[in-house]
Amino acid sequence: MPTFFRAVALAAALWTAATGSAQEFEGERLRSPGGDIEVNVSVSDGRLRYAVHYLGEEIVRPSQLGLLFESRHGFHDGLVLLEEPERRSADTTWEQPWGENRFVREHYNELLVTARHEDSGAVIDIRLRAFDDGIGFRYEMPEQPGIESLNIVRELTQFALPPEAAAWWIPADRTNRYELLYRQTGLEEIERVHTPVTFRLPSGTHLSIHEAALVDYSGMTLMQEYTGGFRAALRPWSDGVLVKTAVPFVSPWRTIQIAPDAVGLINSNLILNLNEPNRLGDVSWVKPGKYVGIWWAMHINERTWGRDGVHGATTEETMRYMDFAAENGFVGVLVEGWNVGWDGDWQAAGDLFSFTESYPDFDIEAVTRYGHELGVELIGHHETSGNITNYEQQLGAAFDLYEELGVTRVKTGYVAGTSWLKWVDEDGVPHYEYHDGQFAVQHHLKVIKEAAARGISINPHEPVKDTGLRRTYPNWVTREGARGQEYNAWGLPPNPPEHTTILPFTRMLSGPMDFTPGIFDLMPNERPPVREDMPRGSPESRVETTLAKQLALYVIIHSPMQMAADLPENYESRPDAFQFIRDVPADWGETVALAGEVGEYVVIARRERGGDDWYLGAVTNEEAREVEVELSFLNAGDPHEAQLYVDGGDAHWESNPYSMTIESRQVAAADRLSLQLAPGGGAAVRLTRAGQ
User: Fold this and answer.
1) Neighbours of 403 (CB within 10 A)
2) Which CATH homologous superfamily contains domain 495-507+542-692?
C-alpha cells in the first residue's frame, strides 16, 4: 500500500475507533515463491493469529501474535484487520564481501497487514516474508497520535508445533549463557530454551526457530507453555521491563527455517536475507584469514593469562608465534593477557582492566612492528569480565591505540561468573543486565560501530547470539556463542563426539563461529606440568575426536577468522597433517551441505573464494559409519586430484585417535567418494583440478 493510502487507512482506523463501526476480515494468505510454504494470518475472537503449512502439512498450528505494554492498551484481544493489505515480491541477488557464499539470492513474497485495537484505536503492522526456505515476520508500530514511547512487558508471539516432534536444544537461564551441551529430547522435556532451536516433525520436515536483525531489542528465548506450544520470552532489564523503545519501532524478525531434511536447514540463507544491506560502505579492509594465538597454552595450564605463573603474553613468546605464523601463511597472532588487569581473580575484577596499558614484559609497539615486517598482524584482545562501564569508558582510546599500531582484528570477551553484565549509572549505582538483553544488544552494536570507524573487525566471545547482522555490519566477522574447543582442555565433561555433528544444524544456522579447531595433542592433560604450582587438568578432560576430525572441522564449522588453536610445536611434529590446515581457506565462494542427520553425521563441501579448489569435510558422532559422497558439485568434465585425510582403519577417538591415512586419487564429477569414518572421527578432502 503506498504511503498516502496507508496514512488514509490509519486515519480511517482512528475514526472507526471513535464511531464504533468496524469490519472484521477472515484473514490473508501468503505463499512462498515456489508455492511449498503458505502462511495464513487472521483474526478470530479479536485475537491475531498466524499458521504455517508446508507441502500441505500444518507445521505451525494457529498461534497468537501481539505485544503488551506497561501503561497502555496492548495488542492482545479486541483486534480487527484493516482492509487493503500491502503485497509485494522481490527477486534479487546480492554479494557478500566474505562468507559461506559469495552471491546470495533473495527471493520472497511479502505481506503487510495492519491490526487495530477497537477500544484504543492504536494500530500495529505485521510484516511477513515467505521464502522457499522459510518465513520471517516482525512487528512494526507506525507513528500515531498519543504514543511516543513504550515499555514492552510481554511479547505474545507463539509457535504451536506438533507435540510429537523431536528437538535439539540448550536451556536458557544458565550461567554459561550459550556454552552448554545440546540435548535431543521430545518436546515434553523442554522448558525455556535458546534459539536457534531445531525440530524434526514426524513427517521428516525439519524446522529451526530463531530471530534475525536483533537491533535495540531484547534477545528472544522460547518458553514452552504446553507440549508443542512455545511463546517468545524476552530477556528483561534489571527493572523488569523487556524492551524500552520509542514509536515508530520495528522488532527483530521471528524466523522459521523450513526444509524437507536436515541438510536443507544448513543450505538456507533465510537469516542473512532478513537483515538490512551493508551500511558501512567500502569494507575491503575486512580481511578473512587463519590465525594462531597465545591462547590454548593458558587453557592447558602451560602458561598463564596474568603474571602469577609463567606469563604467556610476553614480547619474546609473541615474536616466536609470529615467526611460526609467517612461515606457514597465517595472517595474525592472537595474544590474550597482554594488558594490565589479568593478575589474580580477573573474572571478578573486571574494573581493573586497562585496554591501553601493557604489562612490562609485553612491548606492544615492538611486537606490532616486528609482525608488520613479517607480514603478520597482532590480533588484539579485550577481555571485559562483563564490566561494561569500565570497557565503554576506555573504548575510544583502546581502538585508537589499535588503529595507530595497525591492528585490524580484535577479539572481545565477556567472561563472567554469572549470566549478568554490570554497568554503573551516573549516581554510581551498579546495575546487572542479562548477556542477551536489550542493554547487551545496544552495547555490542556500539562496539561494532566504534570499531568500524577505525577499520577494525570484531570477534566477540560470550556474545549476544548471531542474528545475521554481519550482512549489515560486515566487520562483525564471527563470534563464539556455543561450547567451544576450550571445554576439551578443562571441561567435565568435555565436548562429546556428537557435539560437532549437532552444531551445524543448530548454532551454526545463525552464523559463523570461532570454535577454534585444529588441536593435534588430543590428550594435553597427560603432559607433565610446567611447574608444580601449575598442575594440568583432569585426564578426563580431553579432545574426544580423531586427528582427522580436527582437520574436517575447518570445513564443517565456518569462520572467516579461523584459528589453528594448538601450540606451534604440536603442528611441527605432524607436518603431513598440518598441511591441510595450511591449505584450507577461511573464506568461501560457494557452500553446499551434502548429507547428514542432526547429532549423527554431516558432510559439507565448500569452494574457495576466487578459485576452483573445493574442500570437503565429513564428521560423525560416537558411531563409525561409511559415507558415500557424490561429487556432482565439481565442474563436469574436469578431472580432479583428491587429497584425502581420513581415519585409519583402526582409528577410534578414545583408544587410537591419531591413526590417519593421507592419500591422493583422481576423481571426477560423476564419481562417488566413499569415506570410512571412525567412532568420533572424520575426513578432510582437498579437491584440485588435475594439472594445477
Assistant:
1) 15
2) Aldolase class I (3.20.20.70)
Angle, vertex CA 303, rays to CA 299 and CA 304, nearest 5: 80
Compute the half-sphere exposure of residue 449: CA atoms within 13 Å on the CB side of its CA: 9
Phi/psi of residue 409, nearest 5 degrees: -135, 135
Round the average pLDDT of the chain to a whole number and report it: 94
* Listed residue (207, 269, 288, 277) closest to 592, CA to CA: 269
Q: Rounded to the nearest 5°, which phi and psi values hold at 315? A: -60, -45
Percent of the chain with pLDDT over 70: 96
Closest Cα to residue 555, out of 600, 519, 588? 588
Packing angle of the helix pair 388-405, 364-374 (nearest 10 deg): 50
Tell me if domain 276-481 and domain 495-507+542-692 are identical in fold.
Answer: yes
In 3D, which of 466, 472, 552 has the Cα closest to residue 509?
466
Q: Is the pLDDT of residue 62 over 70?
A: yes
Please give the average per-residue pLDDT across 512-540, as a whole number: 96
Q: Which amino acid is at 117?
A: H
Query: What is the identity of the amino acid at 6?
Result: R
Q: Express each pLDDT in 650-665 by its tens digit.
A: 999 999 999 999 999 9
Domain residue ranges of the chain, discontinuous segments joined by +: 3-273, 276-481, 495-507+542-692
CB 66 within 8 A of CB 156: yes
**Other Cβ atoms closer than 10 A to 89:** 11
Total residues found in the chain within this entry: 692
What are the phi and psi torsion angles at 642 (to 5°)?
Answer: -100, 120
> Of 38, 179, 486, 544, which residue is the catalytic one?
486
83 as an active site residue: the answer is: no
Question: Domain 276-481 has what CATH class?
Answer: alpha beta
Quick one: three-class SS letters along 317-348? HHHHHHHHHHHHCCCEEEECCCECCCCCCHHH
Domain boundaries 3-273, corresponding CATH code: 2.70.98.10
Burial of 178 (0-12, 13-18, 19+ CB in 10 A): buried
> Residue 144's closest CA among 127, 128, 120, 126?
120
